[in-house]
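Subject: mismatched residue count in predicted assembly?

I count 787 residues in my input, but I want to confirm that the predicted structure covers every chain. Input:
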Amino acid sequence: MSTFQIDFSQSDAAQKSSKIVGIDLGTTNSLVAVMDLTGPRILSGIVPSVVSVKKNDEIVAGKEARELLITQPERTVYSVKRLMGRGLNDIGEELKLFPFRIAPESQRVLRLQLGDVLMTPPEVSAHILLKLKHDAEAALGEPVTQAVITVPAYFNDAQRQATKDAGRIAGLEVLRLVNEPTAAALAYGLDKRKEGIVAVYDLGGGTFDISILRLHEGIFEVLATNGDTHLGGDDIDHLLMRIALDEIHTEWGEDISSDSTAVQLLRRGVIQAKEELSFVPETVIRLEYNGKTYARRLALDVFDKIIQPIVDKTLGPCRDCIKDSGVTVDQIDEVVMVGGSTRIPLVRSAVERLFRAKPHTELNPDEVVALGAAVQAGILSGAVQNQLLLDVTPLSLGIETMGGLVSKLIHRNSTIPASATEQFTTAVDGQTNVLIHVVQGERELVKDCRSLARFDLKGIPPMPAGLARIEVRFLIDANGILNVTAKDLRAGREISRDVKPSYGLTEEQVEAMILESFEKAEEDLTERQLREARVEADAVLVAVEKARQEEAFLSLSNEERAAIDTAVNELIVVQNGDNHLLIRDKIDGVDKATQNLAEAIINSVAEKALKGSKIDA
Amino acid sequence: MPFEFYEALGLEPKLALDVEDLRRRFYQRSRESHPDLAGSEAEDRMALLNDAFRTLRDPVLRAQYFLQQNGIELSKDVPPELLEEVFELNMALEEIRGGDESALPQLEGARNRFAGMQKEIDLELEAIGARVDSGDKTALEQVRSALNRRKYISNLLRDVDKELNVHLSN
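Triage response: the counts match. Full output below for your records.
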């Protein structure tokens, strides 16, 4: 394609309003996608969800960080999604499995030690998001400020809030958190099936979700969801690692489990073997280290036996989900497979047996969630019409009542936004505040549920016990995040409340982190915009030179030709300056000056076409 | 506002509803009120719509809501007609919890009887519902009695199932 017209249409792209991107922030890998006229498309390559702090304190994310996992494992972190929204007391299991170095001063919020740098999980995730943001900006040639980010459907309130915080820290306005299986259904529904009942089985690197949806005329209604936020391919890797480490210990007479470089090399070998077993019946786990070699044959049937308990662990949530959805197995038309771990043959056969239907694997299980996020972004921007997601909250919401019991206010699988109101009063004369403890979970005792937050309702006018009438409204918004408001019914006014989230960052902490990363991001963006503007100026100048050779150029008036010369000269003058806005301005100038020329060329091209001559010279 | 769940879906307060029609209305109104399409200020409206659909599509929740909107609360007492059965069931539960599994068949028998009763109550509710809908206000008290029984039985069933699960999985 060498026509003038097409060269110029590219420069128009820079003036289009900025796009909302869809981001799959995965345990192992992350991806960014956008909605185009033709459908959702992935914007750039896979970004490994790995962050590393280099010796000069520069922080990198993605492929570069994944390489650093081998050379400087102690300054590198992966699978950080497992730590999102969690406190020190509930990561014991994780610490056994992952080389996370938790800073000693961690309290309500974990801090990871990477060299001299301390980072919370949302900050680590923010660096992955920042990398995706930059990749997207490079691919689109325009700034990206708004995003839809996906989360596991079974994420609780704290995990969702932490994801939203990560987005804000990365300088992204998170317009919506979408559940991963729902996003996958959206991409699948647009592409394949439009009506019926679909189950989405999503087994990723670190999380498992199952959702059942009803699809009807563009409405994607989630009927039920279930899952396990700490179950995935990572767990398979750990089982294989444990076997290999034991065997290496025996064979080499040496325990390498505390040598983090060796462990990371072995982990790489294990993952490679695991992935190969999705396509061949036998493979070898291999580690070459310090002149020694470990090589272990692994056949598929042995592998199947090793991972059977993990696959079985996904089936319970599937059965519960079917039960909660109110449909029978026979009514489920299709099962869509999402997440890299669904390539494993044993996973596929277990799903097929349970749902009595052949699982669908046509869409790339690594990409479908990001594509769905882009579709949701399109729904929010209005680019996608007539589609609507109706999602549910995965866990029941309740408050603590007398004796440590939970009183449920919003049941699991309620469509969101969902609300409940409850009246409270005072227990003692003159009491001026009421403390409300909100929990999430299915169990009857507070201690078995997850604490979300404590709300302190303050400024209640003193009066005898039991007379105050405080109405508290609990709203789970469309992101699955809880909002609480309180009203004094007697005085008819809002009551102020102090929110103490049980896990996660406070508003002030998030604010502080945003500022820091924003300054850096701004600097980066300006630099990038300058580079992009210069590249575009080059392209425009080349296009004009080419146009001068066209016959149509001769048909212009002298004034028009002079105007083009002036505009071109002005662009050449500013092209190597530091002001990208000025460059853009002069590009516009050339665009305007060459408008008639462009039309003349199009006309002559059309004429030639009518005469039957070739367009593409 | 009384009966606002019905109003949210554009319906007259009735005990008998066509669930497919309800779903159509819910979908159509979701397109108008979902914050994804109508902006975040629509959040409250959508929350009400969701609550309304969730409540009205379930015949039991719907009947409960209907009574409540008529100012009638359910009671927490044991329905007198179930007293004897409940007494025997509790004995069997005690024995099993105490480690005596000989009462297990009795428990399973009770389970099936209760499940059968629940089905009967559902049919009964449908019949009384039709009378209420045609203007017979006195039938409301019968709805209440049926719901009381149903709720009580479903709590019993939950306890029995919990116990049976423990022993069957052993």
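Residues 80-169 of chain B form one domain. Marking this ticket as 'not a bug'.
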